[in-house]
Amino acid sequence: MGLAVVLVTIVALAILFPTHFRSFDQWNGAVVRRFASLRVGWLTSPARLVNAILASRWTIRLLRLGTIAALVRLRRWRHLLTFVASAIAVEWTAYKLSVLVGVTRPLGVRIIGNWQGYSSPSRPVAALAVTLVGMTYALLPQGRLRNRGKWVTWAILGALWLARVYLALDSLTDDLAAVVLGAGIPVMAFRYFTPNEVFPVTYRRGRAAHLDVGGRRGEAIRRAVSDQLGLSVLDVKPVGLEGSGGSTPLRLRVEPEGGPERYVFAKLYAMNHVRADRTYKLGRAIQYGALEDEAPFQSVRRFVEYEDYALLLFQHLGIPTPAPHGIVEITPEREYMIVMEFFEGATEIGDAEIGDEAIDEGLLLIRKLWDAGVAHRDIKPANLMVRDGHILLIDVFFAQVRPTPWRQAVDLANMMLVLALRTDAQLVYRHALRYFTEDEIAEAFAATRGVASPTQLRASLKRDARNLVAEFRALAPVRRPVAIQHWSLRRAALSLAALATVGLLVFGVVKTWPLLS
Amino acid sequence: MRWRVWFGVALRGALLAVLVAAMFGLSSQHPDRLACRSGDASIFLLEAQAVPSATQIPCFLPLPVGWRFGASDVRSSRVTASLDSERAGDKAVELMLSATCDVSRARRVELPNGPAGVERFDEPTALHPEASVSYFRFRGGCVTYRFGFSRARFPGVYRDADRILGFTPRSLYVDSLRRQEGLILCGAEAPPCPG
After folding, report:
1. Distance (Å, rounded) from C-alpha B88 to C-alpha B79?
2. How far apart are CA A410 and CA A394, in angstroms?
């Protein structure tokens, strides 16, 4: 950042007060001539070779395409976007700056080799710098490997720098400016958009939304839980990562003062979860219109406050959900953790055997929610646990008070589908008639299509050989499907804005393509 | 808390606006255009560096109404630039400076008011029915001057285009640089350079 400010200041001063920079130019030229005075045959050939390889657009293309392919393969989309955006930003800025500043190639010395355009900042050096630095940050895990990558990057850039000054293709400061630009922009971009604490580069399996709970964050969690909840944390272990995308679920082994060791469940939220929530809700609003309350949360604090409230509400309604133990502040306004009861000995419904009692409990749970005017909105196998044959409900984060009848109907259909996955449609339907009318069940399956079911439930249904939705619809009275596409002024405006953004991006890529390729 | 959100949105909006303004603002400038009366000599010095043997540096005289500068590219051993015409379209005129050019199929044309030492050659119309190609040859260099339209189709545009090309002697830049900066513009009309 500091270097970038220095560079911008130098460029601004050079433009505003060109006469004051004459002596600087002369010094710059003298350095190149000093380098050129060292020219000998055995040194010139390798210098030309280094320049031919490292400054070649083909080398840059190959490196960039390789990195893009690797990031696509690793599904590291955020890193990919940052890598591409940094490359565009550097290429564009270097080109525009070079035209704006208008520095000729070194004067008073014979230039060896091919060049194009103005000299400062050196565009081939900037292109290589942004590519190598981007590769280091996008592909190498933080720590020893990335540090080594940085050293290799500096060595390669240093070699190109020496070669180009020796060949008088660039002045010393042309390359310096290029390195500041080519390294500064991607470093800032990666640090801002893919901070290592939130989006670590690892080659272990796991979701991007899950935070690393080792190192300094792990220590902060232990200290905060001890200070704020009075529980000594003996162990922190991520659990159920595959079923969660909106938070980092953890199992903590704790020891209360004077009490026996036990487990508690915790969900860690950070700013990236708030951003992901915003993007998710924006996407849904564009895709379907106002399906339900799509207003995003504005802060991490609101996230945990809301979940804490929802847990208390469910407890109050007599729904078997984890008892909340409190909110822990890890970093003010940035990271919070909600701690709750851990259902020891419980298994996910997808792995449990369920009987008539569990089916009734599941359906009764929905009936209670209907009667209380609350919807869970995320009924799926990962959120239903079974312990000693009894149903337990977890993850109430998406709960909504006074939801639309459509939303309540969907909760019922999703619960019936989850139960039927472990049993069969006829059995579940028969039990459902004890708590709901035929019309209510028909409405539930008329409302439940595609997006209405959580992704995990849809995937489970797809894997099942039976067509459970069709079976339920056949059992219930005929009912016209409920439309889930709703148009509003907001949806139209959002769609147009999204289209305009995509158009602008395509336009930007097309316009900058000659610079990039 | 609400004001924070709005502040964030406003800040991002302002940043985006500045970036977009900068993008279009910068791209609307053409400091790299080869205008003979440009106050900035850097583009001509760069041209002189691109083809160091050329004793004349080509440029465009003030453009008549209906013409505008197009793309330009200066690289070692070659300079290209184009002009867009409202009537004859983009790249109506293309200029290329190189060290040599093949004039074997062209015929020499008198250049009454041209700079000293510059010879003009025109390729026969039969070779390019929908275009027109001329060469301006001088010591150490040659300019290929191509119109993307025929004289018969746009006679007025052709007349304009034929008068736009100008030349500046390289020696002018060599002398000025030596006098003002004490530096050598390596190549023709200059003392030998080290390295």
Report:
1. 23
2. 18
CA distance B164 to B161: 5
Are the C-beta atoms of A418 and A457 separated by less than 8 Å? yes
Is B75 an 8 Å CB contact of chain A?
yes
Shared domain check, A388 and A247: no
Given the cut 0.90, state whether the ipTM is greater than it: no
Pairing verdict, β A384-387 and A390-393: antiparallel
Spatial distance between the Cα atoms of A160 and A298, rounded to a whole number of angstroms: 47
CA distance A138 to A146: 10
Which runs of consecutive H residues, i.e. helices, occur in B42-166?
42-50, 155-164
Helix A77-101 to helix A123-139 angle (10° resolution) is: 160
Q: Residue A335 in 3-state DSSP? A: strand
Q: Which domain holds residue A302?
A: 215-341
pLDDT in tens, A252-301: 999 887 778 899 999 998 887 887 778 777 777 787 776 666 677 888 89
**Where is the domain boundary, A341, A372, A407?**
A341
Residue range A404-439, pLDDT digits in tens: 888 889 999 999 999 999 999 999 999 999 999 999
Give the count of domains, chain A.
4
Does this model's pTM top 0.80? no
Number of CB pairs < 8 Å for A and B? 82
Phi, psi of A12 (to 5 degrees): -60, -45
Contacts of B49 in chain A (CB under 8 A): 104-105, 111
pLDDT in tens, A98-126: 888 888 999 989 999 999 999 989 999 99
Asked whether residue A102 falls in the same domain as residue A182, the answer is yes
Which residue of A99, A108, A113 is in closest CB contact with B32?
Answer: A99
User: B48: domain range?
Assistant: 42-181
Which residue among A341, A360, A386 closes a domain? A341
Tell me, yes or no, whether A232 and A329 share the same domain.
yes
